[in-house]
């Protein structure tokens, strides 16, 4: 069991039989795991006050032999439905660990590396143990590692999800709430889970210079995070006007096309080497 994380795939035929488009992609996804067709891209996370890259979010891509680069929205939902997200999720963590190790070996330390975790991954009872093993294998400093969770994923509030989060938190891993403000239960999650940062959803950030409501929502999330002593990160920052607004109201970090799209490991390394200043 210890070595073959791929054997954890759970299939639920009934659940998606009616959806024709999902059926074709599933065997291809199994092949993709076997043939190692995934790539982990990195989008820089920038400290707003210094303008320096402090880390990145890892975002998966599928390098399909015929179809080219496939974005996660096209296959993550299927992977979640079929349980294939479990082995894929382990691949992501393992790749992130390997890349952190490679960066450190080149003298390029980063403070934060975040990874998206699907709620479905908590259904694997080996989650904590497997992640612990990967942490040991790649000597990952868990203070660097952060798992991004979406509110919708946590909404069902199942006990095994909470237990999984607590187990991983005991290993020293940080958690952030992704797409903050778009879910249903933000406040109770903040009250009861070990969340260390909030990511303001792009849908609010994109409106701060036109829409007074978006402005107030973004200000309120920043204020909330700061008063709870949490990090606050704005995602989808595309313009310097948006950045100025975020800086003015004390948002800690920004991520978005203004700085960089998600890029390959090699390109991310070049960005870090250029002195981290963007
Ligand atoms: P997310 O976690 O909300 O990730 C942010 C998405 O916004 C990324 O899309 C990113 O490329 C995009 N983005 C970043 N900055 C900007 C910007 O300035 N403007 C615009 N328009 N978009 C921006 P991507 O990489 O296609 O990922 C889509 C979603 O797929 C992610 O949303 C996440 O929910 C999921 N995902 C990606 N990688 C993984 C993974 O390894 N595991 C799991 N479970 N889900 C993943
Ligand atoms: Ca995310
Ligand atoms: Ca997000
Ligand atoms: Ca999202």
UniProtKB/TrEMBL annotation:
Transmembrane segments: none annotated. Residues 22-276 form the EAL domain. This is Signal transduction protein. It comes from Amphritea japonica ATCC BAA-1530.
